[in-house]
Amino acid sequence: MLNEWKQPEIEHLVPTKWNWIVSYPENLKLGRHVDIGCFTYIQAQAGIIIEDDVQIGSHCSIYSVSTINEMKGRVVLKKGCRIGSHVIIMPGVVIGEGAVVGARAYIDKDVPAHSKLIP
Description:
It is a single chain. With 119 residues, the protein is mostly beta strands. The chain has strands at residues 21-23, 28-30, 35-36, 41-43, 48-50, 55-56, 61-63, 65-66, 71-72, 75-77, 82-83, 88-89, 94-95, 100-101, 106-107, 116-117. The model has no long low-confidence stretch (mean pLDDT 91). The protein has one domain: Hexapeptide repeat proteins (UDP N-Acetylglucosamine Acyltransferase, domain 1). Strands 1-4-7-12-15 form a 5-stranded parallel β-sheet, with no helix packed on it. The protein has a 5-stranded parallel β-sheet with strand order 3-6-11-14-16, with no helix packed on it. Strands 2-5-10-13 form a 4-stranded parallel β-sheet, with no helix packed on it. The protein is built from no helices and 16 strands. Helix content is 0%, strand content 32%.
C-alpha cells in the first residue's frame, strides 16, 4: 500500500480528502509515505517540514506561529517519528528521528531522536 502513496493535493484552508487542513501550504514541505490522521490542523506560516515515513494521529494541531503568545518558528518532524492523536506541537519544535510522542501531549520543547514522550 505504501508503494502506491501519492503526494496529496493541499490548498490553503481547504480540507484534504482525508479531512486535515493546512494554512499556508506553500510553507509546508511534506516527505514521502507520510500518514496524517483526520481532523489534524497544520499552521505552516513560518514553515513546517515533515520528513519521510512520519505518522501523525488524528485531531493534532501543529503550529509554526502562535498568536496567543506571539511565538514563531519552523517546526520539523524528523524521519520516522510518530505522533499520537490529540497532540499539540508549538512553534520552533523539532521532533527527532524515530521519536514517539504519546496521545494528548503538549510539546513546546524539542524531543530527542529515538526517545519516547508519553504524558
